[in-house]
């Protein structure tokens, strides 16, 4: 009987692996060697999840998939998620889910084990949670994330997480890192840590040969002359268009709000206290963003840099279109010391934007 089950799982895993190969073929590329190794583990997980009859039987062991930007982690997760034949699954981005979790936690915070109630509210029927772009930088968030993961493990929810960091690289700030070590150790005990570190960065190309999202149809404009803005399909705001937008209990100045387009000055959207929740709320109202007066990040404070990184992550994850009007070439904007820990991912995402640059450097004849 056991032998038959093992043989069945192996056959299922083979079919899952074939679906990854077919998906790659439809998108016009072949899996590289590093991706093939990861596919083997994901195919095994898919076979186990498809045969798992919770709460009976052995719970499938989760996978923590990490590696540099652009190696295909999110694409592999997407194919896996679409392939696994269960309706008790959820795929979420870090920012979106943590925003929802914060809100649910607040609704239950007066109860004992408020985290468990929040998880039950959001994931009542979930047996497989695919958690994309997982990272931990804030010490306050780290403690809540620890309790969240503990609740997920206790509820026998199998996790597939992608990250740019190995577990030991989470919460990298040396002042606070030790606080997250117990959670890191629990992740390593409970999940298989799998590295995807192939030699090629695929972010510079589309998997299918076509733009994957509205984000990729965005534009990086430097230095932002009227002619360049016209080439980008933009018209500079008039002073009369300045408006204050209500975001929760806060207000934020926008240079213009035209239907689904909003135009911000960098320092209005990133230079003052704003949370990821604020940005998420704004993406629900505006699907095209213009951020003007983007400075070299080395010239602004650490909090403004991190907010900019959060904005880029959220806009990309929410499939919004982004126009950046910058003071310098992209490489110069992203150069400097003490930049956000996720600057590699941000640089990779911004490299997807089309570039409208001066024919000659400003100031030259």
Automatic annotation (TrEMBL):
One of its GO terms (biological process) is cell division. GO terms for molecular function: ATP binding; ATP hydrolysis activity. It holds the Pfam family AFG1_ATPase. One of its GO terms (cellular component) is cytoplasm. Keywords: ATP-binding, Nucleotide-binding. It comes from the Bacteria. This is AFG1-family ATPase. The lineage of its organism: Bacteria, Bacillati, Actinomycetota, Actinomycetes, Frankiales.
């Amino acid at each position: 009987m056991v032998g038959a089950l093992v043989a069945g799982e192996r056959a299922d895993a083979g079919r899952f692996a074939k679906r990854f190969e077919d998906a790659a073929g439809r998108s016009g590329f072949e899996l590289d060697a590093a991706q093939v190794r990861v596919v083997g583990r994901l195919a095994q997980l898919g076979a186990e999840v498809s045969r798992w009859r919770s709460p009976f039987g052995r719970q499938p062991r989760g996978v923590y998939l990490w590696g540099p930007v652009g190696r295909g982690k999110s694409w592999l997760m997407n194919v896996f998620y679409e392939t696994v034949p269960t309706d008790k699954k959820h795929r979420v981005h870090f920012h979106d889910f943590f925003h929802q979790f914060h809100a649910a936690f607040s609704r239950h915070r007066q109860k004992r084990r408020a985290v468990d109630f929040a998880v039950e509210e959001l994931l009542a029927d979930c047996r497989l949670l695919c958690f994309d772009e997982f990272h931990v930088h804030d010490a306050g968030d780290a403690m809540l994330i620890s309790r969240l993961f503990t609740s997920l493990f206790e509820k026998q929810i199998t996790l597939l997480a992608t990250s740019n960091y190995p577990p030991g690289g989470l919460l990298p700030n040396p002042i606070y890192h030790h606080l997250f070590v117990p959670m890191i150790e629990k992740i390593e005990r409970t999940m298989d840590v799998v590295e995807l570190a192939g030699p090629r960065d695929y972010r510079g190309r589309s998997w299918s040969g076509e733009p994957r999202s509205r984000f990729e149809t965005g534009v990086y404009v430097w230095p932002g002359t009227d002619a360049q803005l016209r080439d980008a399909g933009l018209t500079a705001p008039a002073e009369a268009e300045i408006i204050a937008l209500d975001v929760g209990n806060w207000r934020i100045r926008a240079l213009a709000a035209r239907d689904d387009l909003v135009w911000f000055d960098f320092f209005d959207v990133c230079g003052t206290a704003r949370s990821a929740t604020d940005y998420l709320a704004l993406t629900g109202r505006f699907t095209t963003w213009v951020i003007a007066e983007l400075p070299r990040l080395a010239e602004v404070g650490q909090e403004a840099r991190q907010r900019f990184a959060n904005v880029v992550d959220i806009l990309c994850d929410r499939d919004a279109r982004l126009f950046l009007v910058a003071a310098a070439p992209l490489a110069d904007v992203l150069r400097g010391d003490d930049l956000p820990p996720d600057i590699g991912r941000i640089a990779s995402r911004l490299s997807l934007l089309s570039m409208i640059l001066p024919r000659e450097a400003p100031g030259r004849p």
